[in-house]
Amino acid sequence: MRFLELRDSRGPMPRGQNVQFNQSRNSILQAFSPENGPTSWTEDNVSVFRSDRCVVRRGLVHNNPTGDGVMIEGSVNCLVEDIDAEEQGNGAFAAVPVGESGCGGCIFRRCRTRQTYNTPRDGRAAPTSKGLSIYTLISPGASSITS
Q1: Which of 28, 32, 87, 117 has the most CB atoms around its CB within 10 Å?
Q2: Domain limits, the chain
């Protein structure tokens, strides 16, 4: 998928309010941007769920009070490149295992975050990450994650 314009995402659950890859190996998302205001509830902007070797590049994620900008879950060898994350409350970038689905070998290249916050906002409680911008958990025996 490319050249996506995402507007006023709603949630709050499940993940991937703008784009979600679910068991979609080798998928590519590129050239995308959102317009999410104070009434949006984005959870994770982009979710790569149990989808190995996916590429997310040249995009913008915006206004996540409770989710991540780009969340890789239970996926290996993914590339997240040239992404700007603005006004993220609960984390901009993450890669973690899910159940028996491992995580590792992912690359975060030229990923930037700005205007993060750790206070109540838009009628929601303060983010639980305490201002964390990127976090990763690597499965035993998996390749390391590079940022």
Answers
A1: 32
A2: 2-136
